[in-house]
């Protein structure tokens, strides 16, 4: 009988220990759940405190735009369609930082009220900021043609022709000059850097020491990062009648000081009789603009 009693007590003790372990386990699980809930609440409070607050809303008029992770053609966050209201947070390089559908991203401000539908676009040319530099200007006449005509006149005509070509692309185009004005060399790349340009193109015309001894056009780059852009434009210009002298490294301030892919195009020798007939022709200027446009389109598509 004593043995049976001891056995019963042993069993009762084991059950008590098991019950205690179960209670402790339940308590531990409850503590973990409470900790998770507290952490979640703290995270929500932090999000509420640190999340950018919007005090202004913008209504998107464009058919469809893609909100990007950064103020450039970066990874897509979401698509914003016509009529959507987004919260304005900040602006950088012509892009608006906005909040929409619980997400934060960037929209190109110059496209907000356009007729651009980014969901059907074949490339991202519309998202680019392109600075076009008409070489020389004002007191700086540039090189002289054999008849005394100034280089500055034709660089401006070619730059304006490219500007016109780019209008249909919805790209943001910035001119270093749009008339016969003096613009310091340093101010040209400075403008491009300040405005967050994607690409920089400077138009010029070559001149040889002796008249009528050189012909053709050349594409110059300075930074290694600009070499691919130079190659793409040079290839696009191959169909011109003038000889393509290829791409070359050139230590020019406008390309050296630019922080984005930048090229300087010498589109013919202004003191060569044959080249000048092309340079001074609106047909040639328009053709160059069309081919440069195509080159930009090919470059941004890749």
UniProtKB/TrEMBL annotation:
<dbReference type="Pfam" id="PF01520">
    <property type="entry name" value="Amidase_3"/>
</dbReference>
<keyword id="KW-0961">Cell wall biogenesis/degradation</keyword>
<keyword id="KW-1133">Transmembrane helix</keyword>
<feature type="transmembrane region" description="Helical">
    <location>
        <begin position="25"/>
        <end position="46"/>
    </location>
</feature>
<keyword id="KW-0472">Membrane</keyword>
<dbReference type="InterPro" id="IPR050695">
    <property type="entry name" value="N-acetylmuramoyl_amidase_3"/>
</dbReference>
<dbReference type="Pfam" id="PF08239">
    <property type="entry name" value="SH3_3"/>
</dbReference>
<protein>
    <submittedName>
        <fullName>N-acetylmuramoyl-L-alanine amidase</fullName>
        <ecNumber>3.5.1.28</ecNumber>
    </submittedName>
</protein>
<dbReference type="InterPro" id="IPR003646">
    <property type="entry name" value="SH3-like_bac-type"/>
</dbReference>
<keyword id="KW-0812">Transmembrane</keyword>
<feature type="domain" description="SH3b">
    <location>
        <begin position="53"/>
        <end position="115"/>
    </location>
</feature>
<keyword id="KW-0378">Hydrolase</keyword>
<dbReference type="GO" id="GO:0008745">
    <property type="term" value="F:N-acetylmuramoyl-L-alanine amidase activity"/>
</dbReference>
<dbReference type="InterPro" id="IPR002508">
    <property type="entry name" value="MurNAc-LAA_cat"/>
</dbReference>
């Amino acid at each position: 009988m004593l043995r049976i009693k001891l056995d019963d007590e042993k069993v009762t003790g084991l059950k008590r220990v098991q019950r205690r372990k179960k209670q402790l386990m339940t308590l531990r699980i409850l503590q973990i759940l409470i900790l998770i809930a507290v952490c979640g609440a703290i995270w929500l409070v932090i999000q509420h405190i640190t999340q950018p607050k919007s005090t202004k809303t913008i209504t998107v008029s464009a058919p469809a735009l893609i909100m990007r992770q950064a103020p450039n053609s970066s990874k897509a966050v979401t698509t914003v369609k016509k009529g959507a209201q987004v919260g304005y947070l900040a602006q950088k390089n012509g892009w608006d930082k906005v909040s929409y559908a619980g997400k934060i991203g960037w929209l190109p401000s110059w496209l907000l009220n356009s007729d651009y539908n980014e969901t059907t676009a074949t490339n991202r040319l519309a998202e680019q900021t392109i600075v076009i530099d008409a070489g020389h200007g004002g007191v700086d006449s540039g090189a002289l043609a054999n008849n005394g005509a100034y280089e500055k006149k034709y660089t401006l005509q070619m730059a304006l022709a490219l500007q016109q070509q780019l209008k249909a692309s919805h790209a943001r185009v910035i001119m270093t000059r749009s008339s016969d004005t003096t613009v310091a060399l340093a101010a040209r790349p400075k403008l491009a850097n300040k405005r967050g340009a994607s690409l920089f193109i400077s138009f010029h015309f070559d001149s040889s020491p002796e008249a009528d001894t050189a012909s053709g056009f050349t594409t110059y780059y300075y930074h290694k990062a600009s070499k691919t852009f130079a190659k793409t434009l040079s290839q696009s210009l191959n169909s011109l009648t003038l000889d393509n002298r290829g791409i070359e490294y050139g230590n020019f301030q406008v390309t050296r000081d630019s922080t984005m892919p930048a090229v300087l195009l010498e589109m013919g020798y202004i003191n060569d009789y044959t080249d000048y007939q092309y340079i001074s022709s609106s047909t040639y200027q328009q053709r160059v603009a069309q081919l440069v446009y195509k080159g930009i389109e090919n470059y941004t598509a890749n």
